[in-house]
Amino acid sequence: MTFNTLISAATLSEHLADPAFVVVDCRFNLDDVQWGRREYQASHIPGAVYAHLDDDLAGTKTGANGRHPLPEPQKLIQTLGSLGIATGTQVVVYDQDIGMYASRLWWMLRWMGHDAVAVLDGGFAAWVAESRPTGTGMEFRAATNFVGAPRSEMSATIVDVAALHELKGWRLLDARAPERYRGETEPLDRVPGHIPGAANYFYRENLQPNGMFRERGQLRRQLEGSLSGVPADHAVCYCGSGVSACHNLLALEHAGLFGAKLYAGSWSEWSSDPARPIATGAEGAVSEREASRPGDGPWPR
Fold first, then answer.
1. Collapsing DSSP states into helix, strand and coil, what is residue 218?
2. Are residues 129 and 20 in the same domain?
3. Same domain, residue pair 142 and 178
4. How far apart are the first and last CA of the chain?
5. Are residues 67 and 106 in the same domain?
6. What CATH number corresponds to the domain at position 209?
7. 225: how many CB neighbours lie within 10 A of its CB?
8. Is the pLDDT of residue 298 over 80?
9. Is 239 noted as a catalytic residue in this protein?
10. Per-residue pLDDT for 288 more than 50?
11. Contact assessment for residue 163 and residue 294, using Cβ atoms and an 8 Å cutoff
12. Per the residue annotation, which of 26, 237, 239, 246 is the catalytic one?
């Protein structure tokens, strides 16, 4: 059986000794970028290897391409091979709890053509709460020859987003907290606000109060409400830097809504250029920086 959205701690525990499973710890903290590695070394799921958001799951920053740009495909291929991932491998990714960082690697593996990847529902917190075994120190797997290539249909560039952000029949979903979307606060990026025309769907709406994902039916109803009749394959997800948006992409997939794209540069890239339009407040309230609306049309390529 292949797992490609979520997996429970109970199910993963049955496969810890299975050589066809690779478990990757993605714990991270934006305020302390070495926190996740320290936590991994102190305690982790037995056999898990570690992937660092900045070092392994992001590319080189230029100051204009966002805080967590995608790495060059060849570099990512080398990274995935170093984690022991090969064709036919079932990958399970986890972070400290709700899956925000783990979902980034989930999306990247699928983007590179590897569909057998699932996020541990509830993360390491759920694993520990169920009194499951843990290991310490650094662990490594034998390097493999990862084979994959980017699926261009899964991502959108800033050029794409600039052309479609107000087109009829397309939907931008902003995964950030409502107060950041509305422009009331911005703790990380140079300018507050959101891309004009975007709807706010805070990624934490995917979760129950205990940090586990909501059941599929409820997720589907919530997400369809934010899509407002637009099919999922005409949706583009973004956030601050292309991380929490992957949580919404995971939720869409888990709910049976397929084909949404990631704008990896997200708000940190969009807001880096003062010439780009910015909206503040609730949807439809646009700042004085907004340029004229583009005409309606097909997917801009």
1. helix
2. yes
3. no
4. 37
5. yes
6. 3.40.250.10
7. 11
8. no
9. yes
10. no
11. yes
12. 239
Does 292 fall in a domain? Answer: no
Two structure tokens written together for 84? 């022991």
What's the rounded Cα separation, in Å, for the pair 40 and 26? Answer: 9
At residue 235, what are phi and psi to the nearest 5 degrees?
-115, 145
Q: Cα Rg for the chain, rounded, in angstroms?
A: 19
C-alpha distances (whole Å) from 101 to each of 52, 107, 128, 203, 277 are: 9, 10, 18, 12, 29
Answer left, alpha or beta for residue 36, where phi above 0 means left and psi between -120 and 50 means alpha.
Answer: alpha
Provide the residue count of the chain.
Answer: 301
**Is residue 39 within a helix (H) or strand (E), and if so which, with residue range?**
helix 35-42
Mean per-residue pLDDT for 233-245? Answer: 98
Residue 293 predicted with pLDDT over 80:
no
Local confidence band at 52 (pLDDT 50, 70, 90 cut-offs): very high
Between CA 117 and CA 91 the distance in angstroms is 5
**Contact indicator for 109, 51 with CB cutoff of 8 Å:** no
> Would you say 2 and 115 are in contact if contact means Cβ atoms under 8 Å apart?
yes
Check if the beta carbon of residue 50 is closer than 8 Å to that of residue 24: yes
Structure confidence by residue, pLDDT tens digits, 131-158: 999 999 999 999 999 999 999 999 999 9
Q: In whole angstroms, how far apart are CA 197 and each of 144, 151, 246, 286, 294?
A: 44, 26, 20, 9, 12
93 phi and psi angles, rounded to 5 deg:
-115, 145
Query: What is the pTM (predicted TM-score) of this model?
Result: 0.93
Mutual angle of helices 216-227 and 244-254, in 10-degree steps = 120
* Nearest partner of 99 among 262, 211, 253, judged by Cα: 211
Quote the pLDDT of residue 285.
Answer: 38
Model confidence at 95, in pLDDT bands (50, 70, 90)? very high
Q: For the residues 159-173, what does the mean pLDDT come to?
A: 90
CA–CA distance, 198 with 162 (Å, rounded to integer): 12
- 38 falls within a domain: yes
